[in-house]
């Protein structure tokens, strides 16, 4: 978090905000590469359940993380995920599937509160803080934890446990 | 060690060069033991010399010191003052190992702190033993002392004034601190009693501590030499001081009348590297000429004329120098004449004729250059500057490949990779275009003008892209020797350790393949070779008893076969005995005695690939980890390659690896199953079959299909891959399926798919480190429509299928009911 530390000294920070359901979330503006429309995502076996799969970003294969799944939010009602927020994390680009991307907001450091389990419905471990903005509270995501080692949250066994388990007949 | 300026810019160049020289040293040192030819020794000396120079220039003193010591030993060998022995080769190899270790350490920036004092001392002992006559601490000069005319005159003047010229070598205590200051003190002390004519290395270099432990001086004095030695020895941190009188012949060299009216040439002083090139060329039977070219006075475009003369000369040899330099010539910064130094096999007359045949060239004077005879005793007669001699050197038969023309440039590997990536993108774009064309013709019909001109353009772009791809692939190709060259050494060590005698040969080392493949074939090959040494070749007594020559033979060969490279290891050892394989498999608990006995010999042979069969009992220091042949096979197959073994008991074993020439782009079959698109490398696809779902039979609970009388086990992607999301689509329509028969090694199975999309060249992309390795998937690729598809790792799928011969019948029934 050293880099954030520097920004704290300057008193102001910039965040890109996006919505998931009714809540507003934010990530530091400097990690955001671009925002693109949601597009074809090929699913990949054996990855943690919040990894939606991989997509083609101008000839590069980029993983896509479904933030709703990651944060334990209910599936989108209606239109749902519409945008891919492409962030750079550990020198790799990762697409975050979000509903809509709102704006870039300036937040005074003094307006950032430590995460509180009461305010948000999501796991406070993944939150860096809460920012008060004119458009309401913004939940600042801790990307290191949110995108942290996928291994931690599931095995890497791409090949399923066996035919018996994998081949259950689809409900008809 | 603190660098006063940033060396990082030169680091890459240095590393690349160091790697080259180290590889050359390694290869040649092992050969040295077999046969020490003058040519080989020359090559070794040259490699050590180059490495010494570049490491010193980079400020890597330890590396420079060690190579210097090695170079000295090689110099003694080269001049036949000592003979090649196994012991010497061992020490040199140890030196090489230290150098390689230092080179690896450099990857982390600074020169690693490796203690090489013992090794350097060993090397010095060898050098010392070579010259009992010389003072105990005298080292062979790294290069002959060259005195310039000025210096020779100074000596001559001093001699006429009754002084004597001495060569003084001072060796500081190894590793002493503040070397530059110690050396400066020595110089000051000597200056009190004598006139310093020359200091080697030059004083500026000494000030910057750019020398090993020793340096030399040429001094003239009327004082007794003992007094100088005493005065210098009295200083602290002095290891040894030796003083030798300079022979009169030095002055004589300068006195030699310059013949053939070439007085001007005597001031032609070669730079160190030029001298090296000249020495080497002359040693290999080439001629070296100084060509003075006179242009017609007042000729227009004289820069162009002169450049043409140089390039004409380059066609028949190597121009190692021009006076003035090439830039000055090009920009016409010279009078009516210029000079070049040419190394060539052609006679002087031919050179002259060639150059004079050009327009606006008035004259070309060709003067041969000869080396002054080097005295065998070091320090006895330092060669003076090279002077063109009157007598042309004998036209010795030229050796092929001795001096090469500069037709290559160094390119950063990263740049090549970037180029390759760009071409890969282009391949994708081409596929997109093809798709657009298809859509267009579907809409507007073949007759449309737009469609047909687009078709033409697409075809052309397609062809160009392929050409471009081929060219860049070629540029990325490197000879397999870059990997093979470390094996002779390894084999030698392995054989020594195992007490075996082995003649190791490499065939086809010049065969080229892509860097991506080169980077990964090393490990499998090491294990194959180890296997041949450990299990193939018998002990000498055993071989003798079997009526074979005591020296076993291992041949490593490489060759191209269509778009593949085949690398093969053949040995004439004991071969793989199916009975022994059965025995071992039972011992290892891989199967029961009864099961082993039931196996055919062919099946028993396959056991060598079983996991846990060949896990090395002793962890070797070559591979460092006891990796079994199963891992080797898996690694090869992961690269879309194939490994095969043929063996005859008592006669030997032949193991071959077949790999695609590149790993970046493969031919693939695209298929669709449950709405997902997969790419299957064509190397493992045997055939495709259209079948009905009802043709699937279950045998012992496993899905199978009968294919030309054979029972083929079946694989379904949705059973093998564990997806978290539901499949985008359900299976086959109308009960129609396709079976893609895949084969990896000896294993074969049919993959059930819903649709065959077609064959296509695909670019392999990594899934990235966030996703990480996914078992059963070797990467992803981007298709013409911009979507992404997984590339199937057929080897892993077949493994999976083999594990699952007995799956519950219920699941199978459920699956069949689905259709």
According to CATH, the homologous superfamily of chain A is CheA-289, Domain 4
Q: Major sheet of chain B: order of its strands?
A: 19-23-24-22-21-20
Tell me what portion of residues of chain A adopts beta-strand conformation: 35-45%
Number of domains of chain A: 1
Proportion of β residues of chain B? Answer: 15-25%
Helix fraction of chain B, binned, reads 40-55%
CATH architecture of the largest domain in chain B: 2-Layer Sandwich
Helix content of chain A: 10-25%
Strand order, main sheet of chain A: write it out: 8-1-2-11-10-9
In whole angstroms, how far apart are the ends of chain A? 50 Å
The CATH top-level class label of the largest domain in chain B? Alpha Beta
Q: Give the number of helices of chain A.
A: 4
The residue ranges of chain A in which pLDDT falls below 50 over 5 or more consecutive positions are: 1-8, 150-158, 160-172
Biggest β-sheet strands, sense, barrel of chain A: 6 strands, mixed
Low-confidence stretches of chain B: 1-5, 133-144, 250-267, 373-406, 615-626, 806-819
Please state the CA-atom Rg of chain B, rounded to the nearest Å. 35 Å
What is the molecular shape of chain A?
Answer: globular
How far apart are the first and last residues' alpha carbons of chain B, in Å? 74 Å
How would you state the average pLDDT of chain A, rounded?
77
How large, in whole angstroms, is the Cα Rg of chain A? 17 Å
Keywords:
heterodimer; A: 172 residues; mainly beta; OB fold (Dihydrolipoamide Acetyltransferase, E2P); five-stranded mixed β-sheet; globular; disordered N terminus; disordered C terminus; B: 819 residues; alpha+beta; Four Helix Bundle (Hemerythrin (Met), subunit A); Alpha-Beta Plaits; 6 domains; five-stranded antiparallel β-sheet
């Amino acid at each position: 978090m050293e880099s954030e530390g520097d920004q704290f000294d300057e008193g102001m920070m910039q965040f890109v905000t996006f919505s998931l359901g009714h809540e507003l979330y934010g990530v530091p503006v400097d990690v955001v590469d671009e925002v693109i429309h949601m597009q074809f995502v090929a699913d990949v076996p054996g990855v943690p359940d919040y990894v939606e799969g991989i997509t083609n970003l101008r000839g590069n294969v980029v993983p896509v993380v479904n933030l709703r799944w990651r944060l334990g939010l209910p599936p989108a009602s209606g239109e749902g995920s519409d945008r891919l927020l492409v962030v750079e994390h550990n020198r790799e680009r990762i697409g975050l599937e979000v509903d809509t991307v709102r704006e870039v907001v300036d937040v005074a450091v003094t307006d950032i509160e430590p995460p509180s389990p009461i305010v948000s419905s999501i796991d406070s471990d993944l939150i860096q803080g809460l920012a008060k903005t004119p458009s309401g509270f913004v939940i600042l995501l801790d990307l290191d934890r949110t995108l942290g080692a996928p291994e931690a949250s599931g095995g890497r066994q791409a090949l399923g446990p066996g035919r018996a388990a994998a081949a259950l007949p689809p409900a008809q | 060690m603190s660098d006063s300026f940033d060396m990082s810019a030169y680091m890459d160049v240095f590393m690349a060069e160091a790697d080259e020289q180290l590889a050359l040293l390694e290869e040649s040192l092992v050969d040295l033991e077999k046969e020490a030819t003058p040519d080989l020794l020359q090559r070794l000396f040259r490699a050590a010399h180059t490495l010494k120079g570049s490491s010193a220039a980079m400020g890597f003193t330890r590396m420079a010191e060690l190579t210097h010591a090695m170079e000295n030993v090689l110099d003694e060998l080269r001049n036949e003052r000592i003979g090649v022995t196994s012991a010497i080769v061992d020490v040199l190899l140890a030196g090489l190992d230290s150098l390689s270790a230092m080179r690896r350490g450099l990857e982390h920036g600074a020169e690693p702190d490796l203690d090489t004092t013992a090794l350097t001392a060993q090397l010095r002992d060898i050098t010392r033993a070579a010259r009992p006559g010389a003072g105990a601490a005298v080292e062979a000069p790294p290069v002959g002392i060259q005195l310039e005319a000025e210096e020779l005159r100074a000596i001559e003047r001093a001699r006429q004034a009754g002084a004597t010229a001495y060569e003084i070598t001072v060796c500081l205590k190894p590793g002493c601190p503040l070397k530059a200051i110690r050396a400066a003190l020595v110089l000051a002390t000597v200056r009190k009693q004598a006139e310093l004519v020359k200091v080697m290395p030059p004083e500026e270099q000494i000030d910057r501590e750019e020398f090993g432990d020793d340096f030399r001086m040429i001094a003239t004095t009327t004082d007794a030499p003992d007094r100088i030695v005493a005065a210098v020895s009295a200083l602290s941190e002095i290891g040894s001081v030796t003083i030798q009188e300079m022979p009169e012949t030095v002055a004589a060299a300068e006195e030699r009348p310059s013949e053939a009216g070439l007085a001007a040439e005597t001031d032609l002083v070669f730079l160190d590297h030029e001298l090296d090139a000249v020495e080497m060329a002359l040693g290999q039977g080439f001629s070296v000429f100084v060509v003075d070219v006179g242009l017609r006075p007042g000729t227009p475009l004289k820069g162009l004329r002169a450049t043409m003369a140089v390039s004409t000369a380059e066609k028949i040899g190597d121009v190692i120098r021009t006076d003035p330099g090439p830039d000055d010539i090009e920009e016409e910064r010279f009078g009516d004449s210029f000079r070049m130094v040419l190394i060539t096999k052609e006679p002087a007359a031919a050179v002259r004729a060639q150059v004079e045949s050009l327009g606006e060239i008035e004259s070309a004077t060709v003067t041969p250059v000869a080396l002054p005879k080097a005295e065998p005793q070091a320090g006895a007669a330092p060669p003076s500057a090279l002077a063109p001699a009157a007598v042309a050197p004998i036209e010795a038969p030229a050796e092929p490949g001795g001096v090469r023309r500069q037709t290559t440039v160094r390119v950063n590997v990263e740049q090549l990779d970037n180029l390759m990536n760009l071409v890969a993108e282009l391949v994708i774009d081409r596929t997109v275009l093809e798709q657009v064309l298809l859509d267009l013709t579907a809409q507007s019909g073949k007759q449309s003008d737009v469609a047909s001109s687009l078709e033409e353009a697409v075809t052309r772009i397609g062809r160009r892209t392929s050409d471009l791809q081929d060219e860049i692939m070629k540029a990325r190709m490197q000879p397999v020797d870059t990997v093979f060259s470390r094996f002779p050494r390894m084999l030698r060590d392995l054989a020594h350790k195992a007490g075996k005698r082995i003649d190791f040969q490499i065939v086809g080392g010049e065969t080229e393949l892509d860097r991506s493949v080169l980077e990964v074939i090393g490990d499998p090959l090491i294990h194959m070779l180890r296997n041949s040494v450990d299990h193939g070749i018998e002990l000498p007594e055993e071989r003798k008893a079997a009526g074979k020559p005591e020296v076993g033979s291992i041949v490593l060969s490489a060759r191209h076969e269509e778009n593949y490279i085949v690398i093969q290891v053949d040995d004439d050892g004991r071969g793989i005995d199916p009975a022994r394989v059965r025995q071992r498999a039972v011992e290892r608990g891989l199967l029961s005695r009864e099961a082993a006995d039931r196996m055919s010999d062919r099946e028993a042979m396959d056991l060598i690939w079983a996991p846990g069969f060949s896990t090395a009992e002793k962890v070797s220091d070559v591979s460092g980890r006891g990796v079994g042949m199963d891992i080797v096979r898996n690694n090869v197959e992961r690269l879309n390659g194939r490994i095969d073994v043929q063996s005859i008991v008592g006669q030997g074993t032949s193991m071959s690896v077949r790999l695609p020439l590149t790993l970046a782009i493969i031919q693939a079959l695209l298929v669709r199953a449950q709405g997902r698109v997969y790419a299957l490398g064509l190397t493992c696809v045997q055939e495709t079959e259209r079948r009905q779902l009802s043709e699937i039979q279950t045998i012992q609970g496993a899905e199978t299909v009968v294919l030309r009388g054979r029972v083929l086990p079946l694989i379904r992607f949705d059973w093998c891959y564990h997806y978290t999301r539901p499949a985008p689509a359900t299976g086959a329509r109308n009960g129609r399926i396709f079976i893609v028969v895949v084969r990896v090694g000896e294993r074969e199975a049919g993959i059930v798919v819903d649709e065959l999309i077609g064959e296509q060249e695909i670019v392999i992309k990594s899934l990235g480190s966030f996703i990480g390795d996914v078992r059963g998937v070797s990467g992803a690729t981007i298709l013409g429509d911009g979507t992404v598809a997984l590339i199937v790792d057929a080897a892993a799928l077949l493994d999976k299928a083999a594990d699952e011969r007995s799956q519950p019948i219920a699941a199978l029934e459920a699956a069949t009911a689905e259709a």
